[in-house]
């Protein structure tokens, strides 16, 4: 993930330095690109400050069409465990990109509206407004905004191709029955 805004940039730079040190030391590794945890992004429809679904109004970041990849935390663990004795993942990045869970914020909201039978009022937040929320905010809020900016405004989770020397989990492990976002959201009805 590419972070160009502090304080998320410092954390990302630190993680990349650790990865490089592991590679330079020739320590076998598998890097897991887990994308976004469903528990933090799905039920709240990507809203800050709550983990529960909004009842009346939802903020849509940008035009709401940037795709993110949402995974149930148990599915992340399942894919990760499968790599332990798998020589196909040694010294590679494993991207967790199950096709049914690659969706935009608008699509996530539509799924929730379909499940509840209720339309939410939508407010669209421009990139400038989103970044302006960092000013004077608590460090954790600043971090959340800086971390989420590339997701909502740049589509960083889906604007690339899996390269040679990398793997995609749902193709490598087609036997895993991952949790679809709609199935996940039904727990909040």
UniProtKB/TrEMBL annotation:
Belongs to the NmrA-type oxidoreductase family. Isoflavone reductase subfamily. InterPro entries: NAD(P)-bd_dom_sf, NmrA-like, NmrA-type/Isoflavone_red_sf. Pfam families: NmrA (PF05368). Residues 4-185 form the NmrA-like domain. GO terms for molecular function: pinoresinol reductase activity. GO terms for biological process: secondary metabolite biosynthetic process. Coiled coil: none annotated. This is NmrA-like domain-containing protein.
């Amino acid at each position: 993930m590419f972070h160009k805004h502090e304080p998320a940039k410092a954390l990302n730079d630190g993680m990349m330095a650790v990865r490089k040190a592991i590679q330079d030391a020739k320590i076998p590794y598998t890097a897991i690109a887990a994308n976004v945890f469903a528990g933090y992004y799905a039920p709240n429809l990507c809203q800050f400050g709550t983990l529960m679904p909004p009842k009346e109004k939802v903020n849509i970041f940008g035009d709401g069409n940037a795709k993110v990849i949402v995974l149930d935390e148990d599915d992340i663990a399942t894919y990760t465990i499968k790599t332990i004795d798998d020589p196909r993942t040694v010294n590679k990045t494993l991207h967790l990109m199950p096709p049914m869970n690659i969706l935009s914020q608008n699509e996530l909201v539509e799924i929730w509206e379909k499940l509840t039978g209720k339309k939410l009022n939508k407010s669209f937040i421009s990139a400038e407004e989103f970044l302006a929320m960092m000013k004077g905010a608590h460090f954790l809020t600043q971090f959340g905004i800086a971390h989420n900016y590339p997701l909502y405004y740049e589509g960083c989770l889906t604007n690339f191709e899996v390269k040679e020397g990398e793997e995609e989990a749902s193709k490598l492990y087609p036997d895993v029955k991952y949790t679809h976002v709609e199935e996940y959201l039904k727990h909040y009805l």
